[in-house]
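Deliverable D5.2: sample structural annotation.
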Amino acid sequence: VARADASVATDTLSLDLTRLAVRRVLVNGVARGFRRDSTQVHVPLRATDGATFTVRVVYDGAPKDGLIIREDSSRGWSAFGDNWPNRARFWLPSVDVPGDKATVTWTVTAPASRTVVANGVRVSRVLRAGRPALAVTRYRMDEPIPTYLMVVAAASLVETPLGATACGAGGRAGCVAQSVWTFPQERDFVPGPFAEAGRIVTFFANLLGPYAYAHLDHLQSATRFGGMENATAIFYSDDAFRKRTLSTSLIAHETAHQWFGDAVTPAEWSDLWLSEGFATYLAALYTRETQGDSAFAAEMSRIRDDVMAATVVAQRPVVDSVGATDPVTLLNANSYQKGGFVLHMLRLEVGDSAFFDALREYQRTRRNRNAHTADLQAVMESHAHRSLHDFFAQWLHKPGFAELEIVTSVDDSGDALRVRVQQASRFGFFALQLPVLVRTDRGDSVTMLSVPAAAAQDFVIPLAGAVVRRVQFDPTVSVLARLTSR
C-alpha cells in the first residue's frame, strides 16, 4: 500500500516492479484498471482521486533479487532486503530512484521462530495461533528515505543490546539506542568492534549535528556488500561475522552514511560521492580521533595511492553522468577514495571552522531531502565567503589528479632555496596549495607554495644562511598529486 501526492500534474502513476505478477490495483479502495509491462505497473489517475490518494497493489511471486531468500542447513530459512542501487523493484512496487524519498511502514507476517527487523521503530509484534505459528511484526519509519535503503530482515536472529549510547547526540538531545543482531552462532563475537558504536555516533554528531533517527541496529545479513547503510538498520555481510573480520572502520563508514546518504541523499546517481566520499573521509577522521595524526596520515596516504592506481580516475570525473547509467559501476575509486580525498583538501582549503559549520548547515537544511554537488558547493561558499567554483571544477568535474615534478637547488650564497614546480599535462593543470617542509641546522619550517594552474612555476624560500638538511613536499598528505622530486 502506498500513498501518493498528485500535486505534480500527471495522468498516470508508474511504479517500478519487475517480474512479479500483479493481481489487482486499488485506488482509494476501489479497483482500478492498470497496464503492466515487464518492468512497471502503470495506474491511470482521475481528477476525482484527490490531491492525496492511496494506491494498493496486490501481487505475488518469488523475487529474483532485492529480497534475498535462502535456506541454510544450520541457520534455517531467512530473508533479507538488499536493494542498492535499484533492486527494490524486484520485490517492492515503488519509484525506485534515489531522488524519490518516502516514509515507510512494514507489516511482516513470518514464522514466529524468526525475528523481524526493519527500518524505523518496532510498533508491535502479535502472535497468531496455528501451525506453523506466525507473528505479525510492524515497523514504522517516520523519516523519508529512498527505496534503496528500505529493508526488512526475517531470520533466526538474536539481539545483543548495546544500550542507550551517544546520549546528547540523538534528536532533541536524546540518546541513541543501539543493538546488534546476529545468528546465535556468532553471538559471542559481540560486542567486539561494536564496543565503539556509541563513541562513533557521538563523534559524528559532534561534527555534523544530531543523529537523524530514533535508534540504530546492526545486523548480520545476506547483503552482497561488505556493509549496507540501510537507514536505522545497517546490514553487514554474513562472512564478516562468521570469519570475525568485521572492523571498527567498517562500522564507522556505515554509520557515517546515516548522515550522508540516508538523512541527506544524493539526488542522482552521478552525485554518489556525496554519500560514499563522505563515508570514506569521515571514517578516516574517526581514525584520527581514536588513533592519532600518524594513523590518519597513513590512511590518507593509502586512500591517495588507491586513487592514483585506479584506471577509472584517469578516465572519468567524480561527478559522473556517464557512469550513472549503470550505478553499480560508480562503486569505484572516484566515488569513494577520490571523493574522500577531495573533502580532505576542501577542509584544508576553507579551514576547519568553515568546513564543519558548512556541513552542519548542509545537514540541517537538507535533512530528509536530497542534494546535488552544487548544493554542497553553495553552502561551502557561504561559509568560506568566496567562490569555490575552480576548486569544485578541477577536482570533481574533470578526471585525474595533479602530477608534479619538483626540482630544488640552494643558491651559491646559501640565502635561498629555489623550487621549480612543473606540471604534466596528462589531466590538464591544477591550482593547488603545496606544503614544503624545510629542515635546516636551525630547525624546521613549513612554507605553503601556491601553485597555479600552469605548466611551471618558480618559488624562492629564504634561508637566511641556514644549512638545508632535508626538503620534504606534502609532509602531511594534503594534496591529490603524484610527486617526483630531484
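Annotation notes: Residues 270 and 322 are 8 Å apart (CA to CA). The chain has a mean pLDDT of 96.
The annotation will be released with the project's public dataset once the embargo ends.
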